[in-house]
Amino acid sequence: MWLYKFLLYLACNNIYYAAVSGEPTPPDADYYIGAVVEFPARTITAAASTEERLQQFGELLESSAIRPDIVVFPEDVLNDRDTPIVVPAPSDDVITCNADEAHYNYIISRMSCYARSLGIYVLINVVEVHNCTQTQNVSDLVANCAIYNANVVFDRHGVVVSRYRKYNLIGSEWLYFNYTSQPEEEAIFHTDFNVTFGHFTRMDLLYARPAQALVQRGITDFLHPSKWQSELPFLTAVQLHQSWSFSNNVNLLVAGTNDPSNGRSGTGIYAGKYGVLIATMTSVEKQSKLHLSVIPKHNASSEKVLKIFKLSQSNRKAQPNNSSQSVLDRFTGVVVARNNDIDLYVTQPLIGRTNMSGPLQQQLCHNDLCCNFYIEMHANPLANATTLSYYYRLAAFRGMGTFLNTEPDELAVCAIFACTGDHLYTCGRIYEEGVSVVPRYIFDTIRISGNFTRQRPCLLSPTSVDNLLMPLPVDEFEWQLQAHSNFTLANLTLLQPRSDLLTFGIYGNYFLDDTIYDHHHKDDASSLSSTMLLLLFLLNLQFYL
């Protein structure tokens, strides 16, 4: 055993010294070194803050003791729709470092210089203007130009090698932005360390295109600048990102914008079935930080590299909650939204019997989905009538739902989730900061299974989140899928006792096709924009009346 650990130590040091020396990772290595940046949201106009933010970008890159191969910056932290910039096409094969601002904005020039001088790949997110016939009046940009939420990737020489324009718009984005027509073609690039990446932005993660389409093409590594607004019970940032990475068994590098007072936080690196490599949620509004990790490639020898990393991280793993707990450790620094669709779920309160003489077994059905629950738990002797605790409900749902109560989504869910009271409207909420919460139960075992129809493409995922707004480590649950002719049987089992769960369950995201919800049809998009403009007009009219 000591020899095995010694060899792992040597291998780890070889990776470390190669990274410190600034040498690029060789193409035949089992790993690469990735970095993600958490960065504060814009609080003043983009024009006034962009120069300062670019300087901070450079400082973060230059101050790192370990030189990564690739760095991802967050969404919507540089410029806005009032200050859009021109981005060169990858086919131009141009190095924009120190370019004349008459041709390329200083954002593109400066980032090209950073990438070239440091010898790294860099992804940034900007608002791009394209095919513009009139630029003098900012208010006319949408009418006379194509405006995109765009990712731009620079290679080690400062060349723009990829440009992806956001495909799935949300809410008011339909009023201001265009969308790309070929997202999968734009969102792919290859690196000199022999990894092919796909990339997308925020809401794209929940849709078939481009994210799931790229997975189906065999892409195994993804970059994701994000400004994610967390939502309970199922879509807090790190919870969702680990779930998506795990279910697709792909590497996912997420750079998150920090705006915790508006529910936006969450940065991490995820290694598919191996789970979280690095993940953070922060309550610090102004925090900017670069996070690095050794990331295993998807090949036969990747497991060795991952074991090295896990060995170095083992002392950071939380201890299982298998004993009586007094006050729970909680994270309340992000304002988390509640998905009101859970009011439509079929639910049942989880009420422990006084003697806890045996397991609880229950089946709940909704439409064509039946969920089976098996729960072994015991009462926490430290909880009493004077302590505050979370209540729990079992839940089943199959039908149309939404994200942030606006974006249509077809879902199938079998889960247990926490509530602050014994009514359904209290579920999907957490106790506010400063409240001492003592767990009512210790969950020894939870087994959840469901028969999920295969009538349309679906991503089935294990989902979990604890009181720190972090998902359970992947070795604390077991996930199994069994495909049948017309349905998939999904099974999720909790392997270690926990007393701090907010959510534990199976989340099925059915991808809507064009016959159900084609939000990229030109006429529909125009109709949606017109409708939203009419609503805004009526609201303003009502205000003045």
UniProtKB/TrEMBL annotation:
Keyword Flavoprotein: no
Domain CN hydrolase stretches: 32-297
Domain of life: Eukaryota
Keywords recorded for this protein, A-Z: Hydrolase, Signal
Signal peptide: 1-22
Name of the protein in question: Vanin-like protein 1
Any one GO MF annotation of this record: hydrolase activity
Protein family per UniProt: Belongs to the carbon-nitrogen hydrolase superfamily. BTD/VNN family.
Source species of the chain: Bactrocera dorsalis (Oriental fruit fly)
